[in-house]
Design a protein that fits this description.
This protein is an alpha+beta fold. The protein has a single domain (9-98), classed as Arc Repressor Mutant, subunit A. It is built from 5 helices and 3 strands. The chain has helices at 14-21, 24-34, 50-62, 81-87, 91-98; strands spanning 39-40, 66-71, 74-79. Strands 1-3-2 form a 3-stranded antiparallel sheet. Strand 2 (66-71) and strand 3 form a beta hairpin. Helix 1 (14-21) packs antiparallel against helix 3 (50-62). The model has no long low-confidence stretch (mean pLDDT 91). It comes from Pseudanabaena catenata USMAC16. Residues 6-100 form the HTH arsR-type domain. Keywords: DNA-binding, Transcription, Transcription regulation. Pfam families: HTH_5.
């Protein structure tokens, strides 16, 4: 079974998080994750090809913003809010509050 790599909390960098959130599509994904516990890939309703969506999900995982777990054929995605808040208090909330 395929497993995704996620950086440990202490390896999440500020520049990585800011890079991950700098793209409007990735910011939209994070905003959706912020209002839900977990979302499967199909529930995002993005008007992008699957390969483009996969790229954005990978960037968010690699930067430590999103966690993906597999259950059968479903990919469940969640926001790593606790880890982000521990590393950079109030950063995520400020970004989400001020994102258009």
């Amino acid at each position: 079974m395929r497993q995704y790599q996620h950086p440990d909390r202490e390896h999440i960098s500020l520049t990585g998080v800011l890079y991950g959130l700098s793209d409007p599509t990735r910011l939209q994904i994070v905003k959706m994750l912020a209002t839900n516990q977990e979302i499967t890939c199909g529930e995002f309703c993005l008007t992008l090809s699957k390969s483009t969506q996969s790229h954005h999900f990978k960037v968010l995982r690699d930067m430590g913003i999103m966690h993906t777990r597999l259950m059968g054929t479903q990919h469940y995605n969640s926001l790593r809010r606790e880890d982000l808040d521990a590393r950079f208090p109030n950063l995520l909330e400020a970004i989400l509050k001020n994102a258009d």
